[in-house]
Design a protein that fits this description.
Blueprint: H1 3-21, H2 24-28, H3 40-46, E1 51-55, E2 58-59, E3 63-64, H4 71-81, E4 85-89, H5 99-108, E5 113-116, H6 122-130, E6 135-139, H7 145-157, E7 161-166, H8 169-175, E8 182-186, H9 198-204, E9 212-216, H10 222-228, E10 233-238, H11 240-243, H12 248-258
Parallel strand pairs: 1-4, 1-10, 4-5, 5-6, 6-7, 7-8, 8-9, 9-10
Antiparallel strand pairs: 2-3
Helix pairs in contact: 4-5, 4-12
């Protein structure tokens, strides 16, 4: 069993437990539930940099990346740096994140927030909305076409945008549907953790232009972004590269300036 399979088994258990404690009515009573969301796809279309910066404490492949910052310091730094949006990891067991991180991020900045999570149930989309997210991530590798359709339709009904992550041709083909806003190509194979920009390059021409193209993972240099832009990519998700420094906001500022 690979790491992704393990995460999904744990996630399904976690959702069952959470549903037994926090009723949907409580999530719907959140102050953020009726709040107008901010469009990341629109911001990416208008941006020269296209940077989506990530708040990430650790990962299964790297263990601890950085535990020294508060969420507020990181996200404010990213906003000041000129990032188009911020990805907030909310998985606890494998990434050291939480929904509180999303809530603190929402209280600190006024740019689009992505709930970066392994979404397997509509309940998690309600959580995302209740904690101030503007968009959610769906991972094609762990969902069927029917699940992608019903989860993306549900997200849209709440006013959330959808970023769908694919890793190969097969995942892309099963996933293309009008309820998606952005299609992200993960340059990291989630089963082997091998990283290569070739994944983004190979799939670029297969992604219809109706969707904003995003390249995710393994982007650590200006050259990588310049290499990917001619393929039609408008968004670039960068996490570890900023988080592993002493000042994530400063690192993002310098990176975006150079860009």
């Amino acid at each position: 069993m690979n790491i992704l399979d393990k995460i999904i088994i744990d996630k399904k258990q976690e959702v069952i437990l959470k549903k037994s404690i926090i009723p949907v009515s409580q999530l719907e009573a959140s102050v953020f539930f009726g709040k107008q969301t901010i469009s990341l796809s629109q911001k990416l279309k208008e941006s020269n940099s296209g940077i989506i910066a990530e708040h990430k404490r650790r990962s299964p492949s790297k263990s601890i990346i950085n535990n020294n910052f508060t969420v507020e310091e990181v996200v404010k730094g990213y906003e000041n740096a000129g990032a188009c949006g911020i990805s907030v990891l909310t998985d606890g067991k494998y990434f050291g994140g939480s929904l509180d991180d999303l809530l603190l991020a929402r209280a600190s900045v006024n740019i689009p927030l992505l709930r970066k999570e392994f979404i397997v149930d509509e309940y998690q989309i309600l959580e995302a909305k209740a904690h101030g997210a503007d968009l959610i991530l769906l991972i094609a590798a762990v969902l069927t076409r029917e699940e992608i359709k019903s989860l993306s339709e549900f997200a849209k009904s709440l006013g959330l945008e959808v970023l769908l992550e694919v890793h190969n041709q097969e995942e892309l083909e099963k996933s293309i549907m009008p309820t998606l806003d952005m299609i992200g190509v993960n340059n990291r194979n989630l089963k082997t953790f091998e990283v290569s920009l070739d994944f983004s390059k190979e799939l670029a021409s297969q992604i219809p232009n109706d969707f904003v193209k995003v390249s995710e993972s393994g982007i650590s240099s200006i050259e990588a972004i310049q290499e990917l832009k001619p393929y039609g990519y408008k968004g670039f998700l960068i996490g570890e590269n900023f988080m592993k420094t002493d000042n994530a906001g400063q690192a993002a500022t310098e990176f975006i300036k150079q860009l």
